[in-house]
Design brief:
By secondary structure, the chain is mostly helical. It folds into two domains: 100 residues; 31 residues, no CATH class. Helix content is 69%, strand content 3%. It contains five helices and two strands; from the N terminus they run ααβαβαα. A two-stranded antiparallel ribbon has the order 1-2.
């Protein structure tokens, strides 16, 4: 015997609830991207980013102070790009961004599979065999846990 319209509606709502829970579980495992300061601190802590030595630092500072540009009064000092004090910063940032992007892409693919499977089950429930739809729902609950 097939499902009534209210039963089909409940069944589809149940599938949506399960889908949302599965999607939230996936996204909860994907960390928010870090800002560049946090990435830099992490790289320094891990030893993947090094500081240039003191003589190199002094040379950068002196060159910056001697650089042509707006005339500075005795109370205004020019800004120095802090990135120039790091060795390995660009490659560490690229690697961190790549890893984060890859994790987000993998999560997107999993979420898309969940949505496709949910739609397939709803279609069976609405237009096909209700017994088959119930079996698919039970499998869907266990799927990707």
């Amino acid at each position: 015997m097939g499902m009534t319209v209210p039963q089909k509606k409940y069944f589809c709502n149940r599938i949506d609830e399960i889908s949302i829970r599965k999607e939230n579980d996936i996204w909860s495992k994907v960390k928010e991207p870090k800002n560049e300061k946090a990435i830099c601190l992490e790289g320094l802590d891990e030893g993947k980013i090094k500081l240039i030595n003191q003589s190199q630092m002094e040379k950068l500072i002196r060159n910056n102070l001697k650089s042509s540009g707006p005339q500075y009064s005795h109370s205004y000092m020019p800004n120095i790009n802090i990135e120039s004090f790091f060795i390995g910063w660009e490659s560490y940032l690229r690697k961190s961004s790549y890893i984060n992007s890859t994790l987000r892409n993998e999560a997107d693919e999993k979420v898309q599979k969940i949505r496709e499977e949910a739609t397939k089950i709803k279609d069976i429930a609405m237009f096909g065999n209700s017994a088959e739809a119930h079996i698919m729902l039970k499998e869907f609950v266990k799927w990707m846990q």
